[in-house]
Amino acid sequence: MTYRLRSVSALLGITDRVVRAYEEASGVSIKRANETNPASPPARVFDPFSLFEIAQWRRTSGAVKTPESGPIIISTYVVKGGTAKTTTAVETAVHLQAQGLRVLLIDIDVQANATQILGYEPDLTEDEAPDYGVSSDAIVRDTLASYLVPYIEALNKNSGTLNLSSTVTRAIKKPFGEAGPHLLPSDAFVSDVEPALFQAKGQRELMIRRLIDASKSGGLPGFDARNYDVIIFDCPPSVSLTSAAALAASDFVIAPIRLDSFSVKGLAKLMSELSVLERNYQLKPEIIILPTFYEPTIARINRMHKQLSTYRDLLAPCVISSSEDFPRSLSSYLPLSLQKPTSSASKEYSIFAGYLFEKILSKGAEKARKVSE
């Protein structure tokens, strides 16, 4: 996938002139069209790797603000499938990274759609890969379960020794290089998290929260949460201990609500789950309701959007419109925003990510104040 200047400007949220200036100042190597086709003009030809390298340079040069205290933890979750939950997790990760933050996406949904959108094969083994023409690098070997299950076992035994797999140091994938969003992928074995949480001694819902804290002290080879400004969990769309543990670790919960089949019950269930966390652990992640599948010309959808006004204090100030392009992300193994950076769908997620960016900065400042008190 390659881009011309206008597409890169759209993804980075800056002008063409500024992109040119950043290219020169950063030293990022950008190919020219006439290098591969002498008949072409010497136009800049970017790819996802160079795009994110420029975004990283913006960050290191101080051109963008970053959270004072991180990482900020976000979960995408609602008890209903087909709401664009995974699309929201992936697109938000891509746009926040493009806007200058360091993002880790953790896929804890056994369907592993986020993993597949980012170019990995959750259903194949390493032995099967050559038969399908798939690179061994695209095979999922480790998931959150590779860390969390041994961590819980060690806690249950009061042992400081983690029995980690030999490949776990390579668990985190980097589909667009070091400068792009990172991924802790999913496959069928991520389901091992659920029974491990059931068998955990003590506060089971806090195990993911504790695991992230442990990673900050260097206790998890290959996974240091301090390397990231933002960690996004793509949760399964069902009530589970796995989802509850992710919610308990979160500062924000993004609830994508599909406007063409809006269910008050799904939101009510989410509110109920969060009230339990607040009652039991004094944890209160902020809910952000993101309306999806919006079509202004359909009266029923407009009525449902108005119905959401009951939750106006929790509503994002933007919507994600219906688009036939979203399903193609899964089959093409590439996020829509990196396929069509100038599309309306990409622009809408860029607006949402910008809104979320400001909230992330505020939350980081709030956490920093609490640490200093």
UniProtKB/TrEMBL annotation:
InterPro entries: AAA_dom, DNA_Partitioning_ATPase, P-loop_NTPase
Classification via Gene3D superfamilies: P-loop containing nucleotide triphosphate hydrolases
Signal peptide: none
Domain AAA: 73-280
Cited CDD domains: ParAB_family
Superkingdom of source: Bacteria
Protein name: ParA family protein
